[in-house]
Amino acid sequence: MRESGAGLPGGERATERKRIAAAPGGGWWRAGRLTQVVAALLTITSACYGFAGGGGLPRNLRTVAIQPFDNQTAVPELQRELFEQVRATLRDRLNLREAPEAKADMVVRGTISRYEVDLPAGASADPRQTTSTRRRLQLVIDLEIVDQTTGRTLLKRAGMSREGQYPEGGEVQGRRNAIESLMADLVEGVQSQW
Q: Mean pLDDT lowest for which of 1-5, 23-27, 46-50, 74-78?
């Protein structure tokens, strides 16, 4: 047998390459066998790995009812913003679906107890200049999350307080920062139960 068709005319050389590639240990056969081995290994290893939703929550906690927070402040849009952020956080970070309270595994309730804005974040050392370009706000809520399947309180925090800084005239951004910080605490608090 000649080495890869060396010295053969053009047509015979191509036939010789096909014969070698089709033979055991040949190029195509080896590549096909390698593909089969890799596919088998991927199948075996993927069977050992799976995704578990729920952000670390027990399997029986899959649905949540979120009651609108009792708003004891003079800012009506705060209730809607907090409600929407709690909804998105529980859905996206804890993989919970919303359900009516009668059918939900968990219930979230809360109170917005304080909201203070336009607190100076810094002041000038010059007593003649009292303006500040940075402001801060403070948001305080009470929060309770109850597992309705067992009646157990999963999280109960009174006086959860967060601040948000913002440039003058940018209160909405400061409020968003404070709410996002509260949501991080909510997720951490719920997950710490398991």
A: 46-50
How many other C-beta atoms are found inside a 10 Å radius of the C-beta of residue 144?
A: 16
DSSP codes joined into one string, 54-95: STT--TT--EEEEPPPEE-SS-HHHHHHHHHHHHHHHHHHH-
Over residues 80-113, the pLDDT tens digits come to 999 999 999 999 999 999 999 999 999 999 999 9
Q: In this structure, how many other beta carbons lie within 10 angstroms of the beta carbon of residue 108?
A: 23
Specify whether 18 is located in the same domain as 76. Answer: no
Q: Is the pTM of this model over 0.70?
A: no
Domain span at residue 100 reads: 63-191
Do 32 and 89 share a domain, yes or no?
no
The pLDDT value recorded for residue 59 is 87
Q: Give the long-range contacts of residues 177-180, CB within 8 A, separation 24 or more.
A: 178/137, 178/138, 178/139, 179/81, 179/82, 179/85, 179/139, 180/85
Residues 98 and 27 occupy one common structural domain:
no
How far is it, in rounded angstroms, from Cα 64 to Cα 155? Answer: 14
